[in-house]
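Q: I'm building a small set of examples for a reading group on sequence design. Run inverse folding on the following structure and report the sequence directly after it, with nothing in between.
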């Protein structure tokens, strides 16, 4: 049978073998937590969640809210200019922990420079009370 190597471990199939990327093979998972108090933030407002260092690779995120974001309020998560990099703008209408993550961010190479991650209120205002905890998980060498 044929064997194919994943890009992260392609060097294992060469002679001499080379090391896998340390940030995604055997790397440490790092959490960046941000608590977001709801204060009726308007559409177009941003909330700074974290500054992620260079060399980190996105794995996934999780939102846990004390109240829903409302039926029409949408949020996106990502840096300025690519607001939906980690979570495409969508509603969040549950109060249980919810995973998120775009494949196009999870398959990226490690960040070349530090990145400020924002939550962007895309449509309609957030509620006037309650809060949410947003955890961002990145792997690092």
């Amino acid at each position: 049978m044929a064997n194919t190597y994943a890009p992260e471990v392609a060097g294992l199939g060469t002679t001499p073998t080379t090391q896998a990327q340390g940030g995604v093979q055997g790397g440490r998972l790092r959490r960046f937590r941000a608590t977001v108090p709801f204060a009726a933030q308007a559409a177009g407002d941003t909330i700074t969640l974290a500054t992620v260092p260079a060399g980190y690779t996105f794995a996934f995120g999780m939102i846990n809210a004390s109240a829903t974001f409302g039926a029409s309020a949408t949020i996106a998560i990502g840096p300025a200019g690519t607001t939906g990099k980690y979570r495409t703008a969508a509603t969040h209408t549950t109060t249980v922990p919810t995973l998120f993550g775009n494949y196009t961010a999870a398959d990226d190479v490690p960040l070349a420079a530090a990145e400020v991650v924002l939550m962007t209120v895309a449509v309609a205002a957030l509620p006037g009370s309650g809060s949410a905890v947003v955890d961002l998980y990145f792997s690092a060498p």
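The longest strand covers residues 28-37.
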